[in-house]
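ok so i was messing around last nite and threw this chain in just to see what happens. nothing serious, just curious
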Amino acid sequence: MLLEALDNKDYSFRLSTKGCSSGDKALMEALNSLVERLSSERQNIEVHSWEKLTRILTHEIMNSIAPITSLSSVFLRRKDVQESPIYNGIKAIHDTSTGLMEFVDSYRKYTTLQKPQPEDFSLREMMEGIQNLGLVPDDVTLYVKYDLEDDTVHADKTLIRQVIINIIKNAVESFNKIPEHPVAKHRERTIQVFAYHYPGTPLRIAISNNGAVIPPIVAADIFVPFFTTKKTGSGIGLSLCRKIMQLSGGTINLLAAGTNGWPTTFVLEFK
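result:
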């Protein structure tokens, strides 16, 4: 089952040590620890690689576009241009280059994310605040459940809060992609946030929804910067979530569709 989980890129899977002999238990714990380290290292490598590429691309693109934006702005202020047939063409060039500059700037923020300021905070209190934001419409139910004795998390509360908000917003959008099938269309639209912490394991937050399944071809690139399936998407949301978790010493993974009965589940893991 562990190999199957790794094949599906489910790095939250852990081997149970319940009922094992002391020798087998030690082996299981060692394998679980190895999977955790593989997951963390894999995400660190991916984040650093995309961060480096994004930094290079944004630098080169900004340098190329800046003169176009500046020169077109100068021409637009000239009276002879304002009264000529070429005005609309130059304005189109200026508007397009300005929009592209703003678009690229959003990616530059990905590489200049503030350094986390970790502190102890109550997960329950943070979730209560998120529930009061009105992120989900009336036809969507947001459940929050816990299986932990201590809800204290040591991380940057503001950044972790943003990660959870981003995932919940994506979950809400997934309901718009449900196939027009009578059963699927009329089932209860549900988002569940489940925080759990068992002895010998990290604290985890599983955020699940029963919206449309993310196709495997999309799931493979879902954390890649610039990648998006939305017409107006920037492709920065989930990659930013992964970077925040990486900076926080944790991980975020998308589980295989159908895990624990949910079409979509993201798992945040804190060390």
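not much to say yet. Residues 115-270 form a domain with the Heat Shock Protein 90 fold (CATH 3.30.565.10).
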